[in-house]
Amino acid sequence: MPRADKNINQNVEIELEKLGYKISDWNPNVTFNKEIEEVLSTASKRQTNEQGMPDRIFFDTDEKLLILVEEKQSIKDHDNPDITQGAISGIKWYLSRFLNKELIKNHKNLVNYFNSYNIIGIAVSGNLQDDYGHKFDCFVIDRKRDDIKSINYINSFVDEDSFLSIFNNTNIEEKIQKISSTTKKINNLLRSIDSQKRPILLSALMICLHKTAENGNNFCDYYKTIQNNLLSKTIIDVCISVLKKENIPEEKLKILKTELGFLEIDAELNSERNNTLKYILNELEEVIIPLFNDKTFVKSNYDIIGTFYEEFLKYAGISNVKKGIVLTPRHITTLFTKLIDIKPNDRIVDLCCGTGAFLIAGMNALIDKINNSELPNKQELIKNVKTNQLLGFEVNTTMYICAISNMLFRGDGKSSIHNCSSIKNNEADNILKEFQPTIGFINPPYSGKENSEDPTPKEITFLIKLLDNCSRYALMITPLSVYNKLPETRTQILQKHTLKAVINMPKDLFAPNANTNTAICVFETNRPFNYNEDEVIFYDLQDDGFVLNKNAGRTDIYNKWKDIEKSLLDDVVKGKNVPDNIKFVKTRIKKRDEWCVYAFSKTDYSGLTTKPFIKVIKEFLSYKAKKDLNILNNEEMDEIDRINFLFSYYGDNLIKSYNIQKIDTCNWKEFQIGNDNGLFNVENSRGDIQTKNRNFETGDKMLISSGKYNNGFIERIEKNIKDKSQLFNKNSITIDMFGNVFYQDEEFYAVSHGRVNVLIPKFDANKYVLLFIVAMIRNEQYRFSYGRGVYQEESEDIVIKLPSTPQGQPDFEYMEKFIKELPYGDLL
Fold this sequence. Notes:
alpha/beta; 5-stranded mixed beta sheet; about 850 residues
């Protein structure tokens, strides 16, 4: 089978080999399948009815997977509409051959054959090794629509399982899409109602449709016959009646009746011609309620009511993790139940349960324990779980009502959810004392204080309350900053309870609603921490395999979570693997130590190459040219103008070809940045230089703040005071609170509120050595974020590896020579 094109990119082969593929498996020159050959026998892109071949074909008969690839050397050809020239148009042409009805009709043996295959098309152009120098598009044949569909969440080659997962999306994800679609419809219909009241109405409607042999509620049989202007009152009455039979206390029913009062006075909803409530009831009855009878879906711990709540507020423009309206993802609520040894008789509490997600996960975990045990009377034990082993507190009335309806459809537990604060509340204290929880799960409100008199962050207040009221375990997910602040408070906690593990979560865990650095802490309660014997596991889960989807939020589209979770549990719970000192550290801690993996992990230098050093050089050269040409903050200039300026500054020296080389660091030594034996004196921003309330005049000195670009440069200033002690000398390094590191080649001021630290060399420094050190400090940037900033103490404690002399001192001569000999080093 001859190859039609000559566009093969060697960098594509490098990428495929990295993923473990055999290049020979992607070669269309091999005659491996007569059906594929038959379809492509007339697929010439010149449309001469002759044979045509994509650049690569991957075919797995066992998995029924076919991948076609079109490659172009230059990204300018990627979007060319001419199918003989363009990567996208070319791959779509080949894919269309497998949708060609005339062709399939004339070859009947092909009809069922390719209908059972998963077919992918990939268009790739440019150099995959260059982050900005390539384009990648993925398409699939969508059999349901008989069309070619773009898969925008795949932007590089992936392993075969990940390709297959495109087609293997579970029924759960499809059902989640249905929920999302239904939410949008209902939200549209209820746009006249306050967004905070919509979740309450939905919960009431769901409760009205709850039908069991015990409660005798037949509302679903007759609501369509009720006059529209009488339906609102009937809904309230039925809702209260159902909950009364479910033993919801009278005071809770009064709260609900008050909250639903708006329904009877809404003129639009109570119009005789308005069928909105009936339409919504029908939608819930046909689409949503059946999901509660779907065993697979129920066991997934998906929070249906919580989704309604979150979506309604999102559509109203309220989407803020600090306001407590962001749901804990269901794979995290499930993970909580696996991080500890749950027993069938455990009693689970959530002090701010929201819509009940943790209680749902805990209930399912307890039921699974019972079903998988040898215990007698399993049905009685399961009933006891639902009625007596779950406890929740929720101060927000809307979420409280959502939680009741959520638990109602899960089988029970709603009467053990209390509409009150669990903090500094005698009623809550009495309930907790009587309930005697053994395990606590919590995702508390983020930020803020409990009251003006108590400066302790809410997260810590909730954690202490949870720890002191659970007899076995307590788990919390909260911002990373909680684990490195208030060392005295954390020390006091360890006087009573033992920290077992801290697991850093992906930054986008709560996306798209929030990007918050969070971590899960696992405590064994009522056992003081032993600093001499107890070891804490710190784990860095940078990637949970979930991908942000425009319509469905973060989803496990590649089906990766199962393996990632297993690896995590093997490390954290079962201790199967040896800690690697990078993402998985098991260590003893000291008083005042941070509870964070980044405080204990060791940077892996085994893969160090010349690439980060070249990047530092190129960034500095670009900054220097823009600074000298006075265009650093020229927002009117486009990229082409900037490129032209760079060429005018450096000439043809900018055009270089080079290879990335691996660096052997085996004989390098570790050196501390600051403190007595460090390489630098570390100082904070001097004085009080503010940009918000400008207290300086325009001048000729650089002003440096926190930021990723242009060396942190803001503008040129002159301090409006005689004292120049706030001015820093050139040949220094700046590192801001986010870990952005730059070499400063002239005198500068630093903005105080930007939390810029200045590294002043204790040795005879030059730009080559300092640029080398900048590149090495940047290897430590993964440790820092908004939740764990770089302040003076953190800067001093940074340890980096450097080339060393036989006497064990930094080899500055080697560093200087190294930078000078790198590509672009001659332009410094």
